[in-house]
Amino acid sequence: MTWAERLQSVFVAGAALAGLGVGLMTPLEASGEHLVIPALLVMLIAVFVQLDASHLKDVGKAKGLVAISLALNYAFTPLLAWALGLGLLGEQPDLRIGLLLLLVTPCTDWYLVFTAMARGHAGIATALLPINLVLQLLLLPVYVMLLGGEAAMVETATLLEAVGLMLLVPLVAAFALRWISTRAKGAQWRDEHVGRWANRIVMPLLCLAVFAMFAWQAPVVAESGTEMLLLLPPLLAFFIILPLVSTGIARLLRLSGPQRVTLTMVTTARNSPIALGIAVAAFPDRPLIAVALVLGPLIELPILAVLSQVIRHREKDAPADDVPATNSEQ
């Protein structure tokens, strides 16, 4: 893990504070509106261009892990998100929708880094990535309309348009870029040049989008600072409950050590960049929804870093009969 990856939450927090300062002290805040979606679109293309569908063959090596991860991510987690929002944010509809958007979107990028740090199964973790991406594209509008209630006051067509813009468009553009670069220069050149370029610009573009959003909505954020603190209890509850549940189920199923690690990471990490893009596109007049999504990674990334180290040491110290060998570890 590079020093830049270790400091992601610091960079995002710094971009938010800088944008807030610019928005409050200068007349430039209106310009931020025109930067947010373009920056997020290019960032998502850079994320998706690094996807490699060849890893899907690893799914067959761990069918039990894949099945339970899908059940946790697309059945248990949405219900947990709905319950946390209703129970702890009942009087804050915008924060509740922001929480829902964040928690029902499994991560499709940085969880791979933390899985590797915790000595999980990199092949299976990578194979789950495109599966989670496609399921998000299909199910996110359903979750918002079914679980958002009256707080999700947006037309279905508007929500589908936002999902299409922020998920389908960059996905198609990324696969086109992969195909063109592979045909022109070969797979090795694509990975060494296009993949490396894409990896390097993701964090700067996310910071640019966060900076622009906070500059654009600085007055709203300043007026609602106390309300934002209400997000801490449900977020912390989520990032405590999911690792405990996934670890417990993994042990009941007697998954191998690397598979236990992979299940924990793939069900705990969330996809705040995609959720942020959809929030900005679908709810442009409700900035608190998008602002809530910026707070997610500020809490999530440090927790994932600590969790990866805790799991790594626990698995290292586990007795041999507690970590049975499987073909998926080969």
In short:
The chain crosses the membrane at residues 35-53, 65-89, 95-114, 126-146, 158-180, 201-222, 228-249, 261-282, 288-307. With 330 residues, this protein is mainly α.
Descriptive keywords:
membrane, Na+/solute_symporter_sf, 15 helices, transmembrane helix, 0% strand, 330 residues, BilAc:Na_symport/Acr3, Na+/H+ antiporter like fold, mainly alpha, disordered C terminus
Radius of gyration: 19 Å
What structural class do you assign from the helix and strand content? mainly alpha
Taken together, the total number of domains comes to 1
Number-wise, the strands total: 0
State the end-to-end distance: 23 Å
Low-confidence stretches: 319-330
What is the strand content?
A: under 5%
CATH topology-level fold name: Na+/H+ antiporter like fold
Please state the second-level CATH architecture: Up-down Bundle
Overall pLDDT metric? 81
Q: Could you give a short account of the major beta sheet?
A: none
Helix count, per DSSP? 15
The share of residues in helices is over 70%
CATH class: Mainly Alpha
- Overall geometric form: globular
User: What letter string, H or E per element, gives the SSE order?
Assistant: HHHHHHHHHHHHHHH
Protein name: ACR3 family arsenite efflux pump ArsB
Main location: membrane
Membrane topology: Multi-pass membrane protein
Pfam families: SBF (PF01758)
